[in-house]
Every structure is written in structure tokens, then in C-alpha cells.
Amino acid sequence: MSVAGVGEFGLIDRVTARLSYGSTVLLGPGDDGALVAAPDARVVASTDVLVEGRHFRRDWSGARDVGHRAAAANLADIAAMGATPTALLVALCIPADLPIEWAEELAAGLAAEAATVGASVVGGDMSGSPTLTIAVTALGDLAGRTPVVRSGARPGDVVALAGRTGYAAAGLTVLSRGFRTPRLLVEAYRRPEVPYPAGPQAAGLGATAMIDVSDGLLADLGHVARASGVGVDVRRDAFEVPRQMRDAAQALGVDPYTWLLAGGEDHALAATFPPEVTLPEQWRPIGRVVAGAGVTVDGEPYQGVTGWDHFR
Amino acid sequence: MSVAGVGEFGLIDRVTARLSYGSTVLLGPGDDGALVAAPDARVVASTDVLVEGRHFRRDWSGARDVGHRAAAANLADIAAMGATPTALLVALCIPADLPIEWAEELAAGLAAEAATVGASVVGGDMSGSPTLTIAVTALGDLAGRTPVVRSGARPGDVVALAGRTGYAAAGLTVLSRGFRTPRLLVEAYRRPEVPYPAGPQAAGLGATAMIDVSDGLLADLGHVARASGVGVDVRRDAFEVPRQMRDAAQALGVDPYTWLLAGGEDHALAATFPPEVTLPEQWRPIGRVVAGAGVTVDGEPYQGVTGWDHFR
């Protein structure tokens, strides 16, 4: 049955029936607004939107995958501020012929990804639209920590990375060339593995700047460099090309470093730390903050594509 | 110039340049997340989405009007919980050929409406899309008040209304028939006048249930009746047909009570109060909560259209 068949309120009932609520949810869906605990007396909030054909394709990702990815993109933003996610709100715009199951599975994916960090889907809105669109807002709590912004990097700081880069971009290239394997890469594109706890951990360690790697590592470090008024130099030898990525790169005729350095959507976290901080295992040093401007690789401007602009 | 001409980051810069921030904003746009004060240690959150062709038309409303209305729809939800709005986040999906000025004016409208209640636009996301879509999330603070939900109405309670109904629906009918006047009605459709302070006021007075009238008064009271397990009876003589509405109804061959009782999008607030509460001037009694189920008008089922389903 399509969503037009059950109507707006029928669909909302069917989708919210899939949800469960963590301890931060004081009032869930079904009223004019949700009520979420904000024990820190400040709330971190971030919004990300996914548009079909631009951020996902239904033939490349299942509904549940899209739910995981939509949630991950937002939850990672909360983590990148040094906060723990508490809640998601979801605006869903759907073509009338969308199968109900697709919307239900999407909700299940959103809820499952949120549950991995103890957060819940607490509300949202639905509308018909010719374009399938998913706008998610995430909320989070800092538990007294200082938020880690993009503008605090200082020359001499160590640049470190938690999580992986290039996997999602490699998976996307694989799919866009008509292949379905290697599974590791395709699955990484469909459901990013985000190192959420590394965000609050970095805040606790005194990270001077942090960002969610969504546009591509070099592009996102560029945002940090610009906001902080510094330069960033990344060491290429800090990145090892995993076997499956190397094989796929060879088969597809791609430089795997384009994936590793410029591929987005794995939602790794990149942060800068004062040099005296002892980095835990999750945080792998990949470069240095330097005086100047812009991002270099081994001291040289990077020659490849560096990131993604959603209008170009 | 179109949005494609300046690119995603250029457009974000131009739009955020229009914004200013109230005292609840601890960190505004430009980072992975915003940081908003939540002095109550709980945060009310609500999301509403507007899709071009379904919720607005660019030939019927200016960009600034659409911004006002998108903000109002969300801010009213916060007020309907008994809270004071603090912040908006906006996901904007725009066709590449949209003039930049349209996006800038939209942001100005969103910010101006938020400013009327001391709230600010603190963040968002932008993407290209074939369908112009605006998803807004509003946050609010209860200042220690108990949230007013839909499920607390009890038989014997007084049903009261703050704000007006039927104006936006009348304005929409006027526009859809190709007219531009009466201005009062058309302007009411373009920019709803929401009685925001009446929300926290009702919470303070001990309202047992409250809802934002967005689908239509009878439909929204139906949500309250269903959630509370009660019936609601509305008195038709509690509604006076304003002169311009009467004239327009006559000219267009419409029963003006269809607008008053079933027209949505004015974002009035409807609430139920224990009978002993002395209602202030802003809250006009319009009916009674009764034992039973459903919504009646003068004790009888209403024969007209009662509301709006976004998929039908």
C-alpha cells in the first residue's frame, strides 16, 4: 500500500509505532512538541537534510540504510561539538506513491542508529512532495563540557582523526559504476560507522577544534583552518590504503587517496589537540596545525578534488 | 543571480549575514551545531515542513511572507506546549535556479518572525532539490511550567480560543480564485498573527490541554478529544463573522463558517481550562468538554469539511 492509501495521520501512527524512547525523552511524538531532558541547561542542536537523487538513491540503499545514514549525519554533528546526542526530530517529505513499508523502514533505521548512542526519535512532521526529502534535527547534551568549535585550532596543535575516511566515497563510486561489491565499501556507504563517543572524549581531553568529516577530510579541515585563522598540514603516510579499497581503486582506475583525503560521508571526527595531550587509541594523529592558511598534504597543495558543494 | 551561481557555502554566508542572535543563543550558525540556552533543563522541540505547491506558492506569497509563515507554524507549536520559543533551525532545499534574493528574503522573514518572541535562527542546512522545501525545527523553554499536552481535557472543562480562525483559509480561497483582496484576509494567509504569549499564559492558568490550530479548529479539537478520551462541543454563536470575511464569502459563494470552524493555518491556540479558572481577555470561551467522543457544533455533528490531510 502507498502512503496516499493510509493518509497522513495513519502513516504517522504506523511510523511512531516503531519507535521506543530512552530516558532523555520526557514527552515523545503525538503532541505539538516533544520534551527532551537538557540536564546541562544548554542544548546542542544541528540540522541536516537528505534529498533523493542527491544524497541517496533508492536503488543503491534500502530504506533502513537511508534512515541509519540520515541519523548518523546529524548525530555526528552533535558528537563533533563534544556532546552526547539525546533526540532526533524528522521532517519527511514523500511522494504519494511511496510504499508505506519504505517509510516504516526508514523510521526503523533512524531509531536504530539513534539508539546506538541512547538517543530517540521524539517528533517530526510529514508532508507529501514530489521529491523524497528527509530533514533531521539532532539535539545533544554537553554534560558541563565546553563545546568544541571549529575556530580554536592553534599552530603547533596535533591534527587527529577518529573513525575512517574514504570508505563511503569508495562505496559510492563502486555503486555508481554499477557494481555491488566489495561489500565492505558498499556497506560503509550505506551505513556509516561513526565514532560517536570520540566526540565527548575529545572535548574532555581539551581538543581545541573539532569537525565532523562530511564533505571530505581536506575540505572539512579547510573549514577548521579558515575558522581558526591557521593552516593545516596532513601527512599522507598517516593513511594506509585498506586492501579492499586498493583493489577497488585499481579495478576502477581511481587514486585511492582521493577517497581517503577527499571522500565525504563516513562521518569520522577530526580534531586538533594541544601537543602535550596524550591521545587515546581512538584518535590517530594525521597532521599538524601550522601558521598560515589553507590545507596542505605533506607541505604541498593537494591536486585532486577536495570536497563537495551541494549546488555545483 | 541564482543560488547555483554562488554555491552552497556562498549562499550560507549570504543568508547568515542577515541574522542576529538573542540572549538564548550561546553559539550561532557556522559550526557543526548551535548551542542554545535551556534554563529549564528540559527543551521543547517541534518540526514542521513546508513544500512549495502544497503549503505555499511563490506567486501567492513573497519570500519574506513564506519565512514568516514557516517560522510561525513552528513557534506556535512551542507556544501550544506552554513554552517560550528560543531558537529555530532551518533545512532549506532549493532549486538551482532560485534567485539568491528569494533565499535571503526567506531568511529575513524567518528571523523577523522569530524575533517577535525573542527567538533566533541558530542553524540549518541547505541542499539543492527540484522541490523548494523548508523544514523548520523550533526549540523552546518551559521556565518550570508543566507542559500542556493534548490528553488532559476533562468533561466540564471550558474550551477557549486565543487568536483568530478562518482568516488564513479565507485568504487562501481568495487567492485561489484569482483575487488579491480583501487585503486583510490575503495578508492573514501570508503572515499569520499568532498569539504566542497566550501559550505560556494558559499553562500558568492551569490549562488541562492545548493545541495549535493548524489543520482547522474542529480537526484540531478532534485531536484533543481523541487524546483525552472526551468529546468537545463548540458553540457556533461564539464566532462572529467579520465584515470582510462575510463579504468575501458572499462574493465567492462560500459558507464563512467553513473558514471559521475548519480553516487551518492561522495558528490560533485552542485550550481547555477547568471551569473555575477566570479566563483573561485573550482567551475567548467557545465551547465545552463533554463525556463521549468526537467534536460537535451546538450538539450536532458538523456537516462540512473539517480539516486537512496532507496526503489526500
From TrEMBL, chains A, B:
It comes from the Bacteria. One of its GO terms (biological process) is thiamine biosynthetic process. Pathway: Cofactor biosynthesis; thiamine diphosphate biosynthesis; thiamine diphosphate from thiamine phosphate: step 1/1. It catalyses: thiamine phosphate + ATP = thiamine diphosphate + ADP. Mg(2+) 5 binds at residue 215. Residues 154-295 form the PurM-like C-terminal domain. Substrate binds at residues 55, 265, 308. Keywords: ATP-binding, Kinase, Magnesium, Metal-binding, Nucleotide-binding, Thiamine biosynthesis, Transferase. Residues 30-140 form the PurM-like N-terminal domain. Mg(2+) 1 binds at residues 47-48, 125. It holds the Pfam family AIRS. The keyword Kinase applies. Its EC number is 2.7.4.16. The keyword S-adenosyl-L-methionine does not apply. GO terms for molecular function: ATP binding; magnesium ion binding; thiamine-phosphate kinase activity. Mg(2+) 3 binds at residues 32, 77, 212. InterPro entries: PurM-like_C_dom, PurM-like_C_sf, PurM-like_N, PurM-like_N_sf, ThiL-like. ATP binds at residues 124-125, 150, 214. CDD domains: ThiL. Mg(2+) 2 binds at residues 48, 77. Reaction mechanism of ThiL seems to utilize a direct, inline transfer of the gamma-phosphate of ATP to TMP rather than a phosphorylated enzyme intermediate. Belongs to the thiamine-monophosphate kinase family. Catalyzes the ATP-dependent phosphorylation of thiamine-monophosphate (TMP) to form thiamine-pyrophosphate (TPP), the active form of vitamin B1. This is Thiamine-monophosphate kinase. The lineage of its organism: Bacteria, Bacillati, Actinomycetota, Actinomycetes, Micromonosporales. The gene is thiL.
